Amino acid sequence: MIDKTLVRNKLKKTEQYVEELKNIRELSFEEFKKNIVIKRFIERNLELAIQQMIDVCKHIVSRLNLREPNSYADCFEILGEKRIVSEENLEKYKNMAKFRNLLIHIYDTVSDKIVFEVFKDNLSDFNSFVEEIKKTFNL
User: I need a surface site. Which of 27, 47, 50, 120 has the fewest CB within 10 A?
Assistant: First the structure.
């Protein structure tokens, strides 16, 4: 059985990290490149928000006794197979997991342009995930 309190808390944390990022949405790419503190803040909040999504995914897969994922991206694939998340958003979630891995494991070579684009263009993907999980599990 899904631990709704745990999932709710993780979704809330996801929303909090994204909200913090939205507070600096007006940031320009030039400011981003010049300010290492802001750059690290954005990278870290993206990483943390994605990690919360992954934690929710792993919890659901485990509690529903679904197949063992081969990767974090595969975890989202499993949710897609079970129609827990929409096919329309599935690739976005899988890409987010891959992006998180880049931030953590290849952080010194991740392009500023890519990080900034994710920050500027993809924050709504987090909200989509939160809403899909809330709707599926009546949270």
Answer: 120
Residue ranges of domains in the chain, CATH in brackets:
4-136 (1.20.120.580)
Classify residue 102 as exposed, middle or buried by CB count within 10 Å of its CB (0-12, 13-18, 19+): middle
How far is 60 from 6, CA to CA, in rounded Å? Answer: 11
Amino acid at 17: Y
The structure's pTM equals 0.95
Q: Quickly list H helices, the chain.
A: 4-22, 29-34, 36-63, 72-81, 87-105, 112-121, 123-136
Q: How far apart are CA 93 and CA 115, in angstroms?
A: 16
In 3D, which of 56, 42, 58 has the Cα closest to residue 122?
42
What is the amino acid identity at position 5? T
Of the candidates 127, 129, 128, 124, the one whose C-alpha atom is nearest the C-alpha of residue 60 is 129
Whether residue 11 contacts residue 19, with contact meaning beta carbons closer than 8 Å, is answered with no
pLDDT of residue 105: 84
Torsion of CA 29, 35, 37, 43, to 10 degrees: 20
